[in-house]
Structures are given as C-alpha cells and as structure tokens.
Amino acid sequence: MKIAVLKEAAAGERRVSATPETVKKFVGLGAEVSVEAGAGADASIADQAYADAGATVGARTATLKDADIVLGVQGPDPANLAGAKPGAWIVAGLNPFGERARVDAYASAGFEALAMEFMPRITRAQSMDILSSQSNLSGYKAVLDAAAEYGRAFPMMMTAAGTVSAAKVFVMGVGVAGLQAIATARRLGAQVSATDVRAATKEQILSLGAKPIFVEAMKGIEGEGTGGYATEMSDEYKAAQAELVSSHIAKQDIVITTALIPGRPAPRLISDAQIATMKPGSVIVDLAVEAGGNVEGAVAGEIVTIHGVKIVGHRNVPSRLAADSSALFARNLFNFLSAFWDKEQGKPVLDEEIGNAIRLTQGGKVVNERLLG
Ligand code: NAD
Question: CDD domains from the entry (predicted)?
Fold first, then answer.
C-alpha cells in the first residue's frame, strides 16, 4: 500500500496534505509513504523532516509511481497523475461543484475520487472534517486581517492622553468560522455582536459573551436544514434581516461575514447602500468571497475601498496560516484513512455511510448522488 503526498499545484496554495506526524502514523500502519520534494516548504516543513518520519522524498513521477492513494489539499490535475495505480484513490478537498470537469476527468482516468468536504456531519466523522478544521482557522485569521487593516485599536485603553474606545465587531454567520471569529475578537477586547439564520446559534453567541442580533421568530422558519447547514431563506425573512442589519451595521467598526449555503452561491448580506452608512475607516472581511461573496463589491484576492470602508477579500484564508492548517488537514486525512484501516488487507476499506457520501467516481463513472441529482 503506497500513499503519495503531492506538492500542491494551485496558485497561492501553501498547505500540504501530510505532515511528518501523519507520515509516521501511516508508516506505523504498514503503509509506504512517498512525498514529492518541496511539498511542505510553504508550510515550513523541510523534506528532511518527512524523510526522518519514514517517507521517501523525490520527484513527482517517483512519488506517484504505483501509488494506491494520492493525498492532496486541493484536487490534483488529472492530467498530472501518470504512474498512480488504476483505481487509485484521490483523497483531497476536491471542490466537486466548482471543479466538475476535473471530477469527470478522474472518472475517465479510472481513479476513485474521494471528496473530503462531503464528509457527513456525524459524530464519528468530526475528526475527519476538513471544513471544520479549516474554517476554524479562517475565522481566527479573518479577525487578525481586520485588525491589521483597521487604523484603530480593538480593546478599550485608558491612557494618560485619554481613552481609546473598544472596537465594535459584528459577525454575520455563526458556523465554525463565525464562532472562532467571535472568540478571537473578544480575546482582542472588542465589543462583539453576531447574527445567523439558525436560531440554535443564539445560545452559542451568548456563551461566548457576545450579543445576538436576530430577526424576531417568523412562523415556519428554522433556518436549519440537513447536517446542521443553513437553508435558503424566504424573501420575507431576507427583507426583515436586511432592515435589522442596516440599523446595526451603521454603528459597527468591523464586520466579518462567513455565511455559506452548500452547493449554492453565498447569500448577499451587505449591500452597497449599507456600506455607505458605515464610518470611514471601518473594515469588512468577506470570508465567503470565493463562493460569490456576502458583500456587494467584494473582490476575491483583493482589498478594495468602497465609501471609505475597506472590504477584505483574501482567497484561501486557511492557507494564510499554512503550518497550522496543514497540521489539522493532515490529521483529518489520517483520522479518516486510519479509521477504516483493515489490518488483514493492509489498506482502508470504507463503509457504506461514509463511502457513499464522499465517493465521487468509481469504475469509470461519476457515482455521487449530489453530483448526479
Ligand atoms: P457554513 O460554513 O455552511 O455557513 C456558515 C454560517 O452561515 C452557518 O452558521 C449558516 O447558518 C450561516 N448562514 C447561512 N446563510 C445565512 C444568512 N442569510 N444570514 C446569516 N447567516 C447565514 O456552516 P458551518 O461552519 O459548516 O457550520 C454549520 C453547522 O454545522 C454548525 O452548527 C456546526 O457546529 C455544525 N457542524 C457539525 C459537524 C459535525 O457534527 N460533524 C461538523 C461541522 C459543523
């Protein structure tokens, strides 16, 4: 059983899908691990550290030769996988909706593509969930990025020269990233408020010492669909939410938006007119910018200024903390493969629940119902 760890090819991707820690654990399971030279460089992991953990380190062709499992952070280019065994597993964040052509190409090449972001949200799969591990770090980094762009301090400071008032931070979307953003902004001393469409988040916001800002309950609206994800809201709800946000947002210094709906464009939460009501020098960080953006005018990969407000739209925020995000991503992959490791066969064998959820391609075809649907 040979596991190949590739150097990420996507522009701006600094993460790596295995660390010396996980290499050592895979070797402990009896696997042979081969790492492409330089794979960990951007995450501050030297080739020698992989070698010391028991991997062979070499060129891409040697790494891929006869590989049974290819690990990646993002999906590798299907044209660049020559040498891997027929039927080899490609295990990565495959962005199945955004990279559909690539999924088709994995199928035609005979690979079994396993999309880690389709991991079901069930208790036993929590330690395998790349969305959670990466979103958590994104929420943290979003607040630091906001602080770096903000020309004022976060905490209240009483000095001999007078008082600096605390920054007001508003977090929109209280999933994994939003919760970490609230906690981080609180640690920095900001006055924090937050909102979500899922009523269950109210308690979580309060427990972090922040103020919930919620549209009053509307009949029939729970906001929560399958797997704890948000559902698309009615027009009536959206109008009430926009009104509430308008009056609140004008008083905020920092807004962090994190709202996502799986398989659909991100909901628009802040309009140009609402930005115009904010104070000059305020900062908005749009963590959903790559999914279409929560904020009107946000540009992926750029910091733009609109009505004197800075709108931060960094791409691939987890990659901006590459050492930690790689460590957690690599553990997610190890936790997944080791949980299914069949000692007699010396390889992982998936069960139906998780296998059917994450398997995109098999036997030359696309087989995942979310893609066929
Ligand atoms: P997400 O990244 O899909 O979305 C971020 C947040 O945006 C969510 O809280 C969502 O409700 C919110 N949102 C969507 N539309 C909105 C709108 N119009 N206005 C305001 N907010 C909006 O969410 P996530 O971080 O993946 O977490 C969703 C839930 O799933 C959380 O409760 C989380 O704890 C849970 N979860 C469970 C598991 C597990 O059991 N294995 C793993 C991860 C997350």
Answer: Rubrum_tdh
